[in-house]
Predict the 3D structure of the following.
Amino acid sequence: MENRLDDIARRLFESLPPAFRSLQRDLEANFRAVLRANLSRLNLVSRDEFDVQARVLERSRAKLEALEARVAELEAARGAGSATSG
C-alpha cells in the first residue's frame, strides 16, 4: 500500500508544471499526507487480510457443499426406506 501511495504521489508531482518542481520534497510530502488522510477514511482491507478471508470462504463453501450432499443422501435414504415400508 505504501508503494502505491508513493507511486500516486510521484505521478501527481510529475503532472505539475516545471516551475512547481523546485518544491518537490514539500509537494511530495503534502501529496502523501493528503492521500493517506483520505484513504484512511475508506473502509479498506489489506491484500493479506483479503486473501485470508477468501481462503476461509473457500473452505466454508466446500464444507457447505459436503453437508448439502450428505443431507441429500440422508433424504434419499429416508425416502427409499419409507417407500419400501409403506
In short: DSSP finds three helices and no strands in the chain. Residues 45-86 form one domain.
